[in-house]
């Protein structure tokens, strides 16, 4: 007989072990930058002749200048007849494509000779965007550029003509001491702030960029001399000048002496990018990119012998120091044979991925330099033959300690896009649930852990002919491409190289995600609630590769004198892949509390229903796939018939099948637990919790999804919440048959047959109390007593 509680506990321990592995598998940015190699690095994996390792590009190309769309607005331009522009803004959905086509004959009047086809994501719900006229205006003689806002609503900007730092200050009403809207010049003081036209500064020191750091409540400015200043809002209309970092080219030369990419004559910083605290365990805070692709990392920590010249009133504030110089790829061949130097006025950085634009020689083409961490080089993912990237030949300055961690190695590729780049920005993704404090969590570099629960990173690039999307390819996308190559050309070598690069267990986990149709498999599908369509042929290949790459479990004997010999099973890659994939599916919720206090003071669900629905679909698809393919975790006929198969191997297979069965029990319980929480949300979770006794409410406030799924506490609390629903139904004189049927169908382990008997017994007591017929009353009470007796074994003693 299987001990259900023990099986769930064992499987839960397996998942917790996988969480810990993922948290340690890939270092964060700070760890790789302080690895051997000193204070500068230039290690890259470049594949100039292999497009499989390039970032995928999806281009929306509109070369016909007769129409242009932006969000839900479509603009039509009659460029032959004149400058008149017509607009179509009646439909609310974001336009994804537009085409001008010929109509079918006979369906329209003769005057209609073309049809404009407008494509939108029909049926998707989107936020309504409302615009309100605030009448907050202020005249100025200076053109404003590079606007940035703070977390508390203050607005700062740079003056194009004078390079000064301005603040647009606004308040609800006008007063004796302040206008409703005014422009404050923070670069000058006193009465001169009222006269911006006469405060012209030297062109070299004019501010050219303002970047806000919302997480740290500060913002940065960049001037024409490539000096970086840091400001912190300090009270109404005032600022604290924290620091100015100057002479940065000399600081960079000291860390990378002799590098041709750093010369005072050509050194120009063209972009500042905030490194979010969530990205790093270390303190790197700011990334600056130069015109020729050098990246400069700044941190508040001045350790490891790092130092720089700083100025400013920074009393009590942590100052930034240049801690690492990342040189551009030295072995990346430019298509135009380096006839012009790198020049990157447009750049973008997020989660360790950097992209930057540079113009080509031809007027019709720009090039996008894309760089992202190479997980096969910096991670510990069980690679068969990990090949550490060579440590850059850069002199080691300062006192940075040597470490066994590998240095940062990145994929680098150069992509061409049509025409000139105007702007670029990352596509905003839904933020995943934050793990509780102290919970091991994978770094943002670890895409292997996130690729089954989030969409791939995308960037938008606006050019003078349209909008281009760059989609970063994940390991899962490489694997899918390798399987497609195997199907088309019969070449198995790329799959072998993939397994050797990412490791057996990681590969098996990804194969399961591919075969079961993970909802995040298709990088072009914005929905996370629809299972990906995978062809039967690809599923068949993925299953076969999963079985072949997974190998067999093994048994290691331990001889103990004076006692029976014991042993330990080493699981196959199939079981390890299953554990890893299941752990990554449930990671977003596993350690999270089920409820949190909402604005009204009542408890509400911590995790949005959309995330719960996505997790439930993916776990269910995995369970369904394995139920239909039980042979994946069984020994092959040749193994079973092999005379050399000893007792040890049989024990290994037995241990593996037991562990797999426990993981599948946990998967089933997880599916039902999510369904249970979604059902509670339908019945207004906050109101249900409020009707529980104080002790139960206290337990619910601290209950995590792991507790709900695997502990007796979770069972007790779930039964208490169901009792509240049943009492609510009875109080409203509604039958409990419907809710009982729903509970047993969606989440049977949270509503047993005994539970249903007790619910019906309660309902019969209500019927007996309501009837006026003594005979009917006796019948309902007798039936109620019978049901209570049958279900008494699950009643707590005080309630009994």
Automatic annotation (TrEMBL):
Domain Nucleoporin Nup133/Nup155-like C-terminal: 572-800
A GO molecular-function descriptor: structural constituent of nuclear pore
Main location as per UniProt: nucleus
Origin superkingdom: Eukaryota
GO cellular component: nuclear pore inner ring
Domain Nucleoporin Nup133/Nup155-like N-terminal: 72-467
Compartment(s) where it occurs, according to its Swiss-Prot or TrEMBL record: Nucleus
Entry-linked InterPro entries: Nucleoporin_Nup133/Nup155_C, Nucleoporin_Nup133/Nup155_N, Nucleoporin_Nup155, Nucleoporin_Nup155_C_1
Keywords: Nucleus, Transport
Biological process per Gene Ontology, one example term: RNA export from nucleus
Pfam families: Nucleoporin_C (PF03177), Nucleoporin_N (PF08801)
Family annotation (PANTHER family): NUCLEAR PORE COMPLEX PROTEIN NUP155
Family: Belongs to the non-repetitive/WGA-negative nucleoporin family.
Protein name in UniProt: Nucleoporin
Organism: Mycena chlorophos (Agaric fungus)
